[in-house]
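Database export, one record per block. Field names are fixed; values are copied verbatim from the stored entry.
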Amino acid sequence: MLAIIVPTLNEAANIEALLTKIESALAGIRWEVIFVDDDSQDRTRDIILQRCRIDSRIRLVHRIGRRGLSSAVVEGILSSSTRYVAVIDADMQHDERLLRPMLEAMQGGECDLAVGTRYTTEGGFGDWAERRQTISQIATRLSRLVVKVNLSDPMSGFFVIRRDLFDTVLRGLSVQGYKILLDIITSSPSSLRIREFPYVFRSRQHGESKLDPLVSLEYLLLLLDKMVGRWVPVRFILFMTVGGLGVIVHLAVLTTLFEVASTKFVIAQSIATVTAMTFNFFLNNVFTYRDRRLRGFGPVLRGLLSFYLVCSAGAVSNVGVASFLFVRDFSWWISGVVGILIGAVWNYAASSILTWRKA
């Protein structure tokens, strides 16, 4: 039996057509489709639930407060019990007719992982714009930094995998961004036997692409996590980067108020501190904690106030630790650096728990 995981977000116009195509492609094969919906605001779930009531092969996982294609795929696979699992997009840009030969290759022991690829003479990108193809090719080249197997399309979101193999890589997954195949391959403790199946990427007929500028950042974070994540959490690196930008903002505001506007230093410093903390909060909310992003006036205001509280406590710990070391004859710069690190670690840990706690 084959379980087909389909992440969805506002794909109401594609659900019925996709199910019809899957049913035709897998005639004579036992299958189930598990839709993992990230709280769509159109009729996606209504349409899926209508099919669930009349067809036991259709199931729905409704996620609230969580976003992301990779994490949706993971939850969908974990909700299945079949020996083989496929992942396919809801927009019908993948060729569902390949599901049968991909499954047969897996059942025949030819491979551990069957992947749909666009990077062959038989495959292609359809009517993708040249700019988008170039971006995809650059991303594929960058993946060579972490992918050590011979695979032409590690960026593919269309594949079939054995469930027992997925279980062996599960705890090593980053679940960053939307390139779950790349995550699986780089998390495998052993070399995988991979067979590629060429197909031409179709044009989206209904709905809108879910890709946005932050997707590129998520991809880079995934690569970074696979390179250094075992030593330093990538989220912490991003948090510290935002903090560094906050220092620049702080100094710019302080200079403007104190040097240009002749404001009293205490007032200028206070305004600069609050401005930098506010800047850091909103930048972290968009980038560092995108998967837990606070939305709406109430949640954002409460998050901002808790972030102020966390950073104020972090400043106290920073000064306290630095002073403690300095009076014990440590050099001023060592005392200062240790204080900064202690404050940064506190801000990161406390804000993860209090400000951007998991849903």
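Remark 1: Residues 234-354 form one domain.
Remark 2: The chain has a mean pLDDT of 83.
End of record.
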